[in-house]
Write a structure and sequence with these properties.
By secondary structure, the chain is an alpha+beta fold. The protein has 4 domains: about 1-185 and about 390-420, Jelly Rolls, CATH 2.60.120.430; about 200-385, Galactose-binding lectin (Jelly Rolls); about 450-565, Phosphorylase Kinase, domain 1, CATH 3.30.200.20; about 575-825, Transferase(Phosphotransferase) domain 1 (Transferase(Phosphotransferase), domain 1, Orthogonal Bundle).
Length: about 850
């Protein structure tokens, strides 16, 4: 991964998928680790795994002092979950590896004690390749059962490999046990066709369709669950089974791959669900659908398992769908899998980002090309692509880094209290001495907005730049409930990484959009954004006002809720208007006006807001439109702030793939030019009417930034313009707009324009569109003079960046627009706007 990051590829490593299995080597048992973290005792689970005490496991880990804690745990709980390795500082486990693929399971049981409350732990887990396996993770799950998180990691180096556990803010990180197991050589890989591989995969679902929940105790100890709870209509299917299988491997048939034992155990294929065809449920109007909740902000790989155990005449042909998209015809008249009864097969496909946060898998019969109208499914696996990256945490290799062995027993409680007290005193002195995590003089927006939170629900203010309690923005939860009719789903207008968005009306009659953070257990532990983003958004929006920035009306943090209340934007997101076929198409002038408005908002953030603010997540879904299609930039949860005279912020890489500045990804140095790059991608979306990343397209077209700039270089930009815009755009306006996007997308950030420059160029593109005879300054200055005289317009001059002409500390939106109007008045032509 380090080598990969050093190469500046504009693919943005978005288009790769997990597991480079082509060079999968034979892996010896020495590559397998089963570690009982926090103890030197060996533990055998009833499922069959034998865990070894950590000092005898063959792995290494960062220096630590072992401290005991007290707690009373259920007698039925395995000894594996009665110890944990915990720390208030980052720590790691290190493994010796060979090139190949590994299955990693992390075991968590958040027991509490008088000294350490693991239920309050919030932390990240990263690997050596900087991929974030768990983000803002809490193991508290409200049950007495452990949480087990499973991943597949592709490792292409023989160097040692580490798993890092990094606590958030003043919290802890911990782990009870680790499985780090080399995948067998004959394990067949999760690779969507025509894609390379790189990203880790997290197992989200592994379902034994038609069979009971059970463990696969002879091949990687996988856990399979029954499919019944995922059937919205249980009467649509019936269960069948067969005692024997045909394991004669035949390779690939019609795109389906014959399965071997490591892919899935035989009993997965010996049971299935078939259509429950009755007089009231005829085959021509029936299907079976399974529904799975997933993260809408992630891509997923689905593996469907098939084995014809129907015992009906040959030529069963049916369709496989996900979210109503046809994925595969299973069987065909020429080469049906029914020719091989009892032979297991599987089929892999990728599901792109989804706003619905559901994956629906459907099978229905082919009524035209099959002698038997039926459909069947034996198993399903759904894996989430973990594409986020973050810097490796700084692990202190000294005894002052107290990594505790938290033991569930009655011994050592007093000792632990003394050591933890001394540790907290030491860390407090470090902070007072000015030893922070980030070393840049450009101070980032505080991750918690200057507010510290105890492990309970009490909150205290600790010298924040702006006391939230004095902002006058707090809205009671009772009023929020009243505004949304208790969060009526009929008022739901959107979903995002933070939470659901509802339309509402406050008691004073103000129409608002209410964004309510997901509860941690609604979408899986660690899903959604967290409290730092919530507080950052409040702090940013409370300091700024501009007609092209969404206004914060208020917030609510009662009852562990995180709710933000904004002005209501009638027309939704820019993305909606670019891709939703049910909405009217935007004209080219409307798109230019929207782009100019968004550029004004970003320019104000960079130079007009107090201290300067970098948005860090510019994308078409974060540009909202009011009833008059006026654009307003939204969602400031990832923003960073700092003085204008600094060059960069050293920070964790955050943002949205497809929009991320490649230089920022490689260097982890954030500047306002990172927003400029992201805005360049938005400009191409506006022009082309397609997403930033579309994996359904040929490889050279998947990444919009790459494809758009390649077409521009070849003089073919007009050929990828959104079809409703054909014959609408003047050649000069298109050329200027394309040049602007190209400048924004320069690989070297120093070659990109400021947002003030971008704003000037877009205003010029609008004038060129409205007065096509007006030529561009670089084409022919003589012609410009003549054109200017003909239209009564003064000679156009290039003015300095707006950022150098205004005082960013005290600027209001009306002052900024006045300044802009003075400059752009030279371009304005009577009735042009």
């Amino acid at each position: 991964m380090e080598t990969f990051l050093k190469h500046r590829t504009h693919v943005l490593f978005l288009l790769s998928f997990l597991f480079h299995f082509s060079n999968l080597h034979f892996l010896s048992f020495a590559d397998d680790y089963y570690i009982n973290c926090g103890s030197d005792a060996n533990v055998n689970l009833t499922t069959g795994q034998a865990f070894v005490g950590q000092s005898k496991s063959g792995s290494s880990f960062s220096n630590s002092n072992n401290v005991a804690a007290t707690n009373q745990l259920p007698a039925s709980l395995s000894a594996l979950y009665q110890t944990a390795r915990a720390s208030s500082d980052p720590f790691y486990y290190e493994f010796k590896v060979t090139v190949g693929t590994y299955l990693v399971r992390l075991h968590f049981f958040a027991f509490s004690s008088t000294a350490s409350n693991l239920s309050a732990a919030v932390f990240d887990v990263l690997d050596s390749s900087k991929f974030t396996l768990l983000n803002n993770f809490s193991a508290k799950n409200g049950t007495s059962s452990p949480l087990i998180k499973e991943f597949f990691l592709g490792i292409n180096s023989t160097e040692s490999f580490r798993l890092y556990f990094a606590p958030r803010a003043s919290s802890l990180a911990f782990v009870n046990a680790i499985e780090f197991v080399a995948v067998p050589p004959d394990f067949t890989n999760f690779i969507p066709e025509n894609y390379a591989s790189n990203f880790p995969l997290q197992t989200i679902y592994r379902v034994n369709v038609g069979g009971p929940s059970q463990n696969d105790n002879h091949a990687m100890w996988r856990s399979w669950e029954s499919d019944d709870i995922y059937l919205p209509d249980p009467n649509s299917a019936k269960q069948i089974n067969k005692s024997t299988l045909n394991r004669n491997y035949v390779g690939e048939i019609d795109g389906l791959v014959a399965s071997n034992d490591p892919v899935a155990p035989g009993w997965v294929y010996q049971t299935a669900k078939v259509m429950n065809i009755t007089a009231s449920r005829p085959a021509n109007s029936s299907n079976i659908t399974w529904s799975f909740g997933v993260s809408g902000s992630a891509r997923h790989i689905v593996r469907a398992h098939f084995c014809d155990i129907v015992d009906q005449p040959l030529n069963v042909v049916f369709y496989l769908y996900s979210n109503d998209i046809l994925r595969k015809e299973i069987g065909s008249s020429n080469n049906t899998i029914s020719t091989y009864p009892g032979l297991p097969f599987y089929y892999d496909f990728m599901v792109n980002f989804s706003e619905s946060e559901l994956i629906r898998i459907t099978i229905r019969p082919n009524l035209e090309n099959a002698t038997v109208h039926n459909a069947f499914l034996n198993g399903l696996e759904i894996l989430e692509m973990r594409e986020a990256v973050a810097p490796i945490p700084n692990v202190k290799e000294s005894k002052r880094n107290v990594v505790a062995l938290v033991v569930g027993s009655v011994l050592g409680g007093l000792l632990l209290i003394c050591i933890l007290t001394a540790g907290f005193v030491f860390r407090s002195r470090q902070r007072k001495a000015g030893k922070g995590v980030e070393t840049s003089d450009w101070s980032p927006m505080p991750e918690n907005g200057g507010i510290s939170f105890s492990r309970g629900t009490e909150r205290t203010i600790t010298g924040s730049p702006m006391n939230l309690m004095n902002l006058g923005l707090k809205i009671s939860f009772a009023e929020i409930q009243s505004a949304t009719n208790k969060f009526d789903t009929k008022l739901l207008i959107g979903k995002g990484g933070f939470g659901n968005v509802y339309r509402g009306t406050l008691l004073n009659g103000t129409k608002v959009a209410i964004k309510r953070a997901y509860k941690r257990d609604e979408h899986g532990s660690g899903s959604g954004q967290g409290r730092p983003e919530f507080q950052t958004e409040i702090m940013v929006l409370s300091k700024i006002r501009h007609r092209h920035l969404v206004s914060l009306i208020g917030y609510c943090d009662e009852r562990s809720e995180m709710i933000l209340v904004y002005e209501f934007m009638e027309r939704g997101t820019l993305r909606d208007h670019l891709y939703d076929s049910n909405l009217p198409h935007l004209s080219w002038k409307q798109r230019l006006d929207i782009s100019i408005g968004a550029a004004r908002g970003l320019h104000y953030l960079h130079t007009g807001a107090a201290g300067g603010i970098i948005h860090r997540d510019v994308k078409s879904t974060n540009i909202l439109l009011d009833e008059n299609l006026v654009a307003k930039v939204a969602d400031f949860g990832l923003s960073k702030s700092g003085p204008l005279d600094e060059t960069h912020v050293s920070t964790n890489v955050k943002g949205t793939f497809g929009y991320l500045d490649p230089e920022y990804m490689m260097s982890e140095q954030l500047t306002e030019k990172s927003d400029v790059y992201s805005f360049g991608v938005v400009l191409l979306e506006v022009l082309c009417g397609r997403p930033a990343i579309d994996p359904t397209l040929p490889r050279e077209q998947m990444n919009l930034a790459e494809w758009g700039m390649l077409c521009k270089q070849k003089g073919l930009l007009d050929q990828i313009v959104d079809s409703p815009l054909k014959n609408q755009i003047g050649p000069s306006s298109l050329r200027k707009f394309g040049e602007t996007a190209d400048k924004c997308l320069q690989e070297d950030a120093s070659n990109r324009p400021t947002m003030a420059d971008v704003l000037w160029e877009l205003e010029y593109a609008l004038q060129l569109q409205q007065q096509p005879k007006l030529k561009e300054a670089h084409e022919d200055s003589t012609a410009i003079d003549a054109s200017s005289a003909a239209f009564g317009v003064p000679n156009i001059q290039r003015f300095p960046s707006l950022g150098s002409t205004v005082n960013g500390d005290d600027m209001r939106d009306d002052e900024l627009d006045t300044t802009e109007n003075k400059i752009f008045s030279l371009l304005k032509i009577s009735d042009a706007r």
